[in-house]
Amino acid sequence: MQNLLKTTFKIGLSLALLSVVYSCKEKITGEYHPNSPPETFLFVQSTGKDTLNHTASIQKLFWDGRDEDGFITGFYYTWEAFPDSGDWQWTQERSLTFPLKITGAETSYVFQIRAVDNDGAWDPTPAKQLFPIKNTSPTINWLPSSRIPDTTFTVASFIWQANDLDGDSTIVYFEYALDDTTQWRKIAGFRRNLTLTADSGLTQGEHVFYIRAVDVANSRSPIIRMPQRGTWYVKEPKGEYLLIDDFANEAQSNYPDRYYKSMLSQILPEIDPQAGFDYWNIEEQFPASRLQFIETLKLFKRIIWYCDLIQETDEHFITAQVAIPEFLATGGKIIYSVQFNQGFGALGNPLEFTPVDSLGKMFNFITSNSVYYPDSTGQQSIDELFGVQLPELKVSKIIVGLMGLKPKPTAIPLYRYDDPRSTEDPIFILLGRNDNKHGTDAYDFIFSATPLHYLQANNNLNEFFKIVFNDIFKP
Description:
The chain is α+β, with helices and mostly antiparallel strands. It has helices at residues 2-25, 256-271, 282-285, 290-297, 315-329, 376-386, 461-472, and strands at residues 39-43, 58-66, 72-78, 89-91, 95-99, 106-117, 127-134, 139-142, 151-152, 155-163, 171-178, 185-188, 193-197, 205-207, 209-215, 224-226, 232-234, 241-246, 277-281, 302-310, 333-340, 356-366, 371-374, 393-394, 399-407, 412-417, 427-433, 443-448.
């Protein structure tokens, strides 16, 4: 039986081989079919066969291809109406977004795309679409940070945002006007802010600012104005001195602005009969633009800036860290009087811009009639540099919550508090030297961690300020 099965298998195999040999010798009949090129389909909602209604300059297009005897490997597309071979770009995507450049009120583009199959054949009749592009006018709006106080000095900054559906790069310039919209001035289209000064026409009196955007097709946005209602008042500086009121709770401190105004009115005529000073309450008139604040400081040469409690997150203190160094770099000189809030100094080194190296001992309170006496080493330096003796000062009202100061190596300690519980009395007032990278190398920064108007018990605080402005801050 086994031999019979083997014999049958051999006979079957032989017949199969003979069949294959015979088939190979048989001729192929019929016609050869060459590779068929693919077809391409472009998906655009159209109102006509080859054109569209006027549309936007940002186009998202979709396409696909079909190949009867293979498969699609990709596509070549072009925006040239009569393309050369080098004008076609390759993609395997089936959708792309194209920004079409606007060159006038109306511009036309032709998009062509052809599919490529797995044999490298491409559609000889590309899918084609004409896009007539109609320009869209730009828009312009104020940012919240562009609000302007109702009163400024001869500096005013404006910040806006502008957009164009045809692409923000199509905004070629802005036109602005001060008070009179028959007289427009141009600035570049990439700008989003502008600062006006006296040289720009900011004179004392009421003003209003207008601005609009203009695109490549000479299409203009609606005009916006600042203030959005009414006008704002500009006042010209009276002289080189500025008093900055940054004190929120003045009633609780017996209105310190009264002392500072009175003091300046008394000592400035003795220093310079022509000298005048300006008062700026930044609790009420703080500008939204940091640039406006900095440029306003630069209008003056000598500044007293007095604060109540400050902390690192206060907007005014954050601005001071930038504004004061820039002001000093122009040759200005400043007295900055503060009181630290509880926990101040926990975030980094917020006093790097001051003559302070670090903070020292914390005092819960300092009683009235406590003595602030000139530091002996500091007094010697002041005598050698300026030839003057600092007066002893006394606290006129209990001060709650103060922190001593540790000076930088180049700073001069001016005053120490006569601490009855310590032989190392803490420093509270320093004189800083502007010796940083962009500094003037002058002693130009008095920093006090005690609100100075609390030191009137000896009735000689005016003498201290007179020495500062007449001798230490002398030009």
